[in-house]
Amino acid sequence: NQTLIPHFILLGLFTHSPLHFFFFSIIMVMFLVALSANGLMIFLIHVDSRLHSPMYFFLSWLSLMDLMLISTIVPWMAVDFLLGGGAISFTGCGLQILFFLTLLGDECFLLAFMAYDRYVAISNPLRYSMVMSRRVCWIMVAGSWLFGLVDGLIQAVFTLRFPYCSSQEIDHFFCDVPTVLKLACTNTSLYETMIYVCCILMLLLPFSVISTSYLRILVAVLCMRSAEGRQKAFATCSSHMAVVSLFYGAAMITYMRPQAYHSSKQDKVVSAFYTMITPMLNPLIYSLRNKEVTGALRKLLGRCSFGEGQG
C-alpha cells in the first residue's frame, strides 16, 4: 500500500536567513567569475597561435567542462533559493545526475591525460610532437567524454529505476546519487556497494596515471643539469598539480568514504567545493601562474585598447 511520489524536493544549501543571503551572493559572484574566466580561457586559446599546443588544447576542454559543470548545478540552485519550492521532476533529476556524473568523469580522465602530456613534454621533448599529435589529443578527449558518459548513463538510469515512495525531500542542493537513494522504498545496498566500487575505480585509475606521470617527471627534472630547465619544468607542472589536488582531494573525500562516515552538512560543503569553487579557481590558477596565458591576455587587452584609441 505504498504510494509512489511524483517528484523530488531539493532542500538546498541555504535557508533564507540574512547570513545565508550573503553566502548566496558570494556563490553567484563565484558563478559569474567562473563563467567569464573559463570563457575567456577558451577564447584566448582559440585566437592566440602561441597557445595552439596539446597542453592548451586540453586546457581549453578542461575550461569547457568546468563551465558546463557549474552551469549544471548553480542556476537550478539559484532559482530554487529565490523562488522557493525546490521541486524537481524525475526527468530533471535524472538529467542532472547524467550531466553531473558525465562531467565529473570527464575531468577525472582529462586531468590524467594532461599529466601524461606533461610527462612526454619534459621526459621526451624531441618526440613530443609525434607522440602527442593532434589525432592522439582528439582521441584522448573523446575517450574522456566516452568514459564519463558511460558512467553517467549507467548511474542515472539505474538510480531512477528504483521505486521512491517515502519522503520527497532530498537533503542536498542537487540530485546527488547517494542522497537520492536514501529515499528509495526498496533495498539498495547492493547497488550502493557497486557505485562505491565504481567511484573508487573512476578516481583511482586516472589518479594512478597522474601519480606515475609526476613521479617520472620528478626523476627527469632531478636529472636535468640546467637550473633554468628545472625551474621551467616545475613552473609548467605546478599549475596542473594544484588543479589535480583541488579536484581529486574533494572528490575522494566525497566518494571514497564509506556511507557510515557521511553527514549531510559535510557532503554539501565538499560538493560545493568541487562544483563551484574548483571551476572558478582552475582558470585563475592557470592564468596567474602561466606566462604564455598572461601574455596572450595582455596582447588581447592591447588590441582592445588600441581599437578604442583608433575609434
Notes on the structure:
One of its GO terms (cellular component) is plasma membrane. By secondary structure, this protein is an all-alpha fold. The chain has one domain: Rhopdopsin 7-helix transmembrane proteins (Up-down Bundle). 77% of the residues lie in helices and 3% in strands. It has ten helices and three strands, in the order βααβαααβααααα. It has a three-stranded mixed β-sheet with strand order 2-1-3.
Which helices and strands, and how do they pair?
Layout: E1 7-10, H1 18-47, H2 54-83, E2 87-89, H3 90-123, H4 128-131, H5 134-161, E3 169-170, H6 177-181, H7 189-222, H8 227-255, H9 264-288, H10 291-310
Parallel strand pairs: 1-3
Antiparallel strand pairs: 1-2
Helix pairs in contact: 1-2, 1-9, 2-3, 2-9, 3-5, 3-7, 3-8, 7-8, 8-9
List descriptors.
three-stranded mixed β-sheet, Rhopdopsin 7-helix transmembrane proteins, globular, mainly alpha, single chain, 311 residues, olfaction
Q: What is the name of the CATH class?
A: Mainly Alpha
User: What are the secondary-structure elements, in order, as H or E?
Assistant: EHHEHHHEHHHHH
Helix content: over 70%
The radius of gyration over CA amounts to 21 Å
N-to-C terminal Cα separation, in Å?
Answer: 74 Å
Q: How many discrete structural domains?
A: 1
Number of helices: 10
Q: Main β-sheet: number of strands, strand sense, barrel status?
A: 3 strands, mixed
The assigned structural class equals mainly alpha
For this structure, what is the CATH homologous superfamily?
Answer: Rhodopsin 7-helix transmembrane proteins
Number of strands: 3
CATH topology-level name: Rhopdopsin 7-helix transmembrane proteins
| Large-scale geometry | globular
Give the second-level CATH assignment, the architecture.
Answer: Up-down Bundle
Mean pLDDT: 86
| Lateral strand order in the biggest sheet | 2-1-3
Approximate strand percentage: under 5%
Low-confidence stretches: none
